[in-house]
Amino acid sequence: MIYAVKDILLQITAACSFLCMFQWWIDQGYIVRRNERFLDDQSFLIISCALSIVFCMVLSTTLFDAIYLNLAMIPAYIGILYAGFRSGVSLAVFFILCTVLFSEPPGLSNLVLNTGVLLYPLLFGMAKPFKSEKVMGKIFILWSVLFPSMMFIVLAPKMYGPSLYDTSSKEMAVALFYLLVPVILGGGLLYFIETAWDRLQTQEKMKGISEKFERESEKLQQITNVVPVSIMLLDDMGYVTELNDCMLNLFRQHEPNITREAIVGQQVERLLLQEVNGEALKRMRESGFSKQRYNEKVQYDSRTYNVFSAPLHHGVGGGSAGRVLTVQDLTEEEKFRSELDNVERLTLVGQMAAGITHEIRNPMAVVRGFLQLMREKSPGEMDSYYQIVIEELDRANDIINDFLSLAQSRISDKEPVQLHHIIKELAPLLWADANLRGQSVELRLCPSLPLLQLNPREIKQLILNLARNGMEAMEPKGELLLETRFTENKVELIIQDTGSGIPQSQLEKLFVPFYTTKNQGTGLGLPLCLSIAERHQGSIRVESQEGKGTAFIVSFPYGQEGRQQAAATKERSDFPSQL
């Protein structure tokens, strides 16, 4: 009796071996599941069932010298139900061959009985609905095939051998145990297989969700890094938890060596305390404590930023998740707005100039004419008074002319002109003005300048304005330098004085209309010069040092034809020296 129970337990172990192999495969192989070099789970399950059949066949024996003790039918039936048609047929053929080799006693009737081949049509017919059933449905399908097969194996020897009434109670109990064990064991094995697959599917779903979450997080991080807005995340206590690349670059504009690690974990107030206005920090702190939005323009290290802060929440109606802080650099926008204000002021100047032209110049011309007539008929001692009035009228007329020139927005009529010719035409006038002031003028002209597309009248006005400004900035014995030079794509005119220089705080305001440092100035001379240069697609740059003087550098562009002409001019100028 003990040996019979032991043999049954060995068969149970052999029949369950495929489940151990299958579980090992799942635990080791799900990571490389998508690799084509590896078997899928279903194929490995069929192979494991085949190996389990071999184990059961090797350990097979007879119970009470009558009942064939072999539980290979359990892995065989489970493999056939889970396999496809071809794999199922192959496994069934393999099971039959193993039975032919190992079954005791041999013979066709025993082969049919021990393999349950008569139930194979039912088994293959139920394989397709088996795959779509839930766990209990699959167990019932297996039982509907397995129980009749085991009943034939247990009861058939008793039909041709001793009567059931002659069998002892212990033998009957063991036989009944052997009949029920495969049914219970088959259901348990199916349950564990389905549980393992469900766990595997859950792992794959979780892995897919995790990978999707990582992809979406990475995508969101890339989006925040690409967006040209500085973004920073803060916790409820105001400590930095995350920031994008734009925010890091913003910090590096003020502290070039700062790292992301040095910012994360710091309080935002400590990062901004040195430069931001205290009242702005106080309002930012209060908005954080009150969980309200905050939006304000802040001055930081001579730049203007728009700071926006808003609270974050966990889900809909959830708890606090900190705050998001965004910063936009408005410095260039403020400059653009300032320039736009200048444009609006110039527009107003144009409107004023148009009205002044018609309403004031004509009466002034009449007044000047009558003053000249009255001067001729008045005594000589009154000439100085008439001269003062006429000069003031002329000065007012010059102001009107500056208004008109500055308000002009039409395209200048240009022609090919040599810049040196314009300078040489103005040279006598500049020398005369310099002599009256006790100053000197030096011309340092490049011998190989190309022809430029210029409006001679406007260029003369530009040179006179800049030169006279330089003379007015110098004391007697000062020296004014007019120099020309050219590079690959531009010609430069430098007008440099030896005056007191311009403070750095005033350099940015030089070309603002109506801004002047002179007692009698109108603030329209330099804006007029800039307007003339821009109408020639040029620019004006100012270099100044206090106590040493100021240089106005006017640049005019020219193209490929101008470069060729400049090279030819240089060769002609060098030719006499080579002789």
Structural class: alpha+beta
Helix content: 55-70%
Tally of contiguous helical segments: 21
Q: How far from one another are the termini?
A: 133 Å
Number of strand segments? 14
Unreliable stretches covering 5 or more consecutive residues: 30-35, 560-579
Strand order in the sheet with the most strands? 4-3-7-6-5
Sheet-strand content, in percent, reads: 5-15%
Q: What oligomeric state do these chains adopt?
A: single chain
Mean pLDDT: 77
What general outline do the C-alpha atoms trace?
Answer: rod-shaped
- Give the C-alpha Rg: 51 Å
Largest sheet: 5 strands, antiparallel
Keywords: ATP-binding, Kinase, Membrane, Nucleotide-binding, Phosphoprotein, Transferase, Transmembrane, Transmembrane helix, Two-component regulatory system
Organism: Paenibacillus jilunlii
EC number: 2.7.13.3
Pfam family, one: HisKA
Textual characterization of the structure:
It is a single chain. With 579 residues, this protein is of the alpha+beta class. 61% of the residues lie in helices and 15% in strands. It contains 21 helices and 14 strands. The strands form four sheets. A five-stranded antiparallel sheet has the order 4-3-7-6-5. A five-stranded mixed sheet has the order 9-11-12-14-13, with helices on one face. The chain has a two-stranded antiparallel sheet with strand order 1-2. A hairpin with a 3-residue loop joins strand 13 (539-545) and strand 14 (549-557). The longest helix is centred in the middle third of the chain and has 58 residues, at 169-226. The model is unreliable at 30-35 and 560-579 (pLDDT under 50).
